[in-house]
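At this stage, I wrote out one protein's amino acid sequence and its backbone structure tokens, and that material follows here:
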Amino acid sequence: MNVSAWSIRNPIPAVMLFVMLTLAGLLGFQQMKIQNFPDIDLPTISVTASLPGASPAQMETEVARKIENSVASLTGVKNIYTTVRDGSATITVEFRLEKPTQEALDDVRDAVARTRSDLPGDLRDPVVTKMNLAGTPVLTYTVASPRMDDVALSWFVDNDVTRALLSVRGVGSVTRVGGVTREVRVELDPAQLLALNASAADVSRQLRSVQQEASGGRVDLGGQEQAVRTIATVQSAEELARMEIVLSDGRRIRLDQVARVSDTVAEPRSAALLNGQPVVGFEIVRSLKSGEVEVARLVRAKLDELRAQRPDLTITEAFNFVDPVEENYHGSMWLLYEGAILAGLVVFVFLRDWRATLVAATALPLSVIPAFAVMHYVFGFTINVVTLLSLSLVVGILVDDAIVEIENIMRHLRMGKTPLQAAKEAADEIGLAVIATTFTLIAVFLPTAFMSGVPGKFFVQFGWTAAIAVFFSLVVARMLTPMMAAYLMKAPRKPEPEP
């Protein structure tokens, strides 16, 4: 079937097809997220185990080595990295890229569960998580208020700010930076313990059972069944100080007789400074499949609501990693516009016909815009450095097919043929050559989408974006360009004889 001839005979379906493709592309472009780099999913799993008070040597022999031996037998494991510190061990399991991330996560969880009985009894349950490459902060703010000290500001960030921002679409996590953490400190008096023939272990064992709340079963009361809960909690440091401690010999004493209980803050292990002054701040991390620009816009709107509710607050933006992404996006889009304009000027200089230039230049936007629809709705791509680079590279190639078609149509017009006849015969002459040239370009770009290794995770969007845009340039050249030439172009005043 000669698509060009059918398009010339039936211009309305061809025009409507590209109208729908253009509308779909514009909708897809508006819905695409703006990111710095595309989100990639690497099958790397992290296992974090905590045993407070244990030495690094103990963590290595009793925890890390046993977990390593369990996960080493899993299928597809490439490397295992272990970091051991006081009271904690982090085991990172790197799988081969062919391994699905969810499957790798489930396998590691099963391996850790199998070895849980061999680990120390007082070890906290190991936390198994997958690596999140979108976990870098995109925005950092500081909070100040003349009415609140560091304790109140820290609680305000942990409670109010975190809860408000986590409700924003696209926010993955909110982490406080600086500030203090509340701590109820129990300082034992060694002399009193020695006089009562008690030990710190006795007190610690009793305190461990204080903050407990569990189910107590059911009871029939007044003909109705009621749930019963066992509650053993304290509400304040004063109540904890009045708690009775049962010694090993059966005697009972109050905690404040052997210790000083105070409601204070924990020893600071980190600090946040802004211009040399200590501050309380928070970092915002976006979630996967969300764009930095959209997240920043929604976060700033939510912070404006917090400022309106609390006029005494001073929220200052300390670090911003979103503006460079937005600047790169606008710069890349401006380069695309410049490339399109320069391509049109070059076509006009060599063809010396504004009608032919208009027909050829139409191929550029009608090749790029429908590509956004396929990128968004079919592949789920985003607007990032990789996709913009791909479009920048092929922007000059997208008009090649149209230029070849127009040049051949002009040659037939100079022979004295009518525009309709010239468009049909010229498009039929070089149709196979144009198709072969386009698929040659696709054969060059598309294999980059199937590269192996970590680079292949990035270049999958590069290869598909270029191939999609080049394919639409072929559709434009075979359907729209001959049809527009047949109805817009005119024969030259002096026909040239056929060679």
